[in-house]
């Protein structure tokens, strides 16, 4: 592959490329479960029990309508359950199912393997921290 083709590409194109290739790697290793970017929502809900759809909107920057579709798909596929929030009956609490709970460690291990294969090391913590800051700042610009 000719690395020169990336020389003039915008930073966002590099990030998009990394994201798409990691997703392809995950699907290849998981047997192409066709979860697409929904994997990040499964991980988010797994790590934050009783999350709300608003939490997913804030995390992803996607519209409420789009998140509603994603939640419905994950629920229909048996990865999450929606329960009415007893503190606010107009909202739902989202939690992962045993099916998702079994999948999460596999996703995390495959992600670690991918990071290793692409050359990310423990020494890259500052790089990861900086990219996370850039991601958060990019969302703030849109929200303001």
Give the SSE map.
Blueprint: H1 11-30, H2 38-47, H3 53-60, H4 64-76, E1 80-85, E2 88-96, H5 98-118, H6 125-143
Antiparallel strand pairs: 1-2
Helix pairs in contact: 1-5, 2-5, 3-4
Structure, described:
The chain has 144 residues and is mainly α. The protein has a domain at 36-108: Winged helix-like DNA-binding domain superfamily/Winged helix DNA-binding domain (Arc Repressor Mutant, subunit A, Orthogonal Bundle). The protein contains six helices and two strands, in the order H-H-H-H-E-E-H-H. The chain has helices at 11-30, 38-47, 53-60, 64-76, 98-118, 125-143, and strands at 80-85, 88-96. It has a two-stranded antiparallel ribbon with strand order 1-2. It is globular.
Q: What's the alpha carbon Rg, rounded to whole Å?
A: 17 Å
| Number of H- or I-type helical stretches | 6
Question: In percent terms, what proportion of residues is strand?
Answer: 5-15%
Q: Which class do the helix and strand fractions yield?
A: mainly alpha
Low-confidence stretches: none
What's the count of strands? 2
- Average pLDDT across residues? 91
CATH fold node name of the domain at 36-108: Arc Repressor Mutant, subunit A
Series of H and E elements: HHHHEEHH
């Amino acid at each position: 592959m000719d690395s020169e083709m990336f020389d003039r590409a915008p930073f966002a194109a590099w990030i998009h490329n990394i994201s798409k290739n990691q997703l392809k790697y995950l699907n290849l290793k998981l047997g192409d479960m066709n979860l697409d970017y929904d994997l990040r929502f499964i991980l988010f809900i797994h790590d934050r029990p009783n999350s709300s759809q608003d939490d997913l909107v804030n995390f992803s920057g996607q519209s409420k309508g789009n998140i509603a579709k994603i939640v419905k798909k994950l629920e229909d596929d048996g990865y999450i359950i929606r329960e009415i929030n007893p503190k606010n009956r107009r909202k739902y609490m989202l939690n992962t199912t045993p099916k998702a709970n079994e999948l999460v460690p596999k996703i995390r291990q495959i992600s670690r393997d991918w990071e290793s294969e692409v050359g990310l090391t423990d020494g890259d913590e500052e790089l990861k921290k900086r990219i996370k800051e850039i991601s958060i700042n990019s969302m703030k610009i849109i929200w303001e």
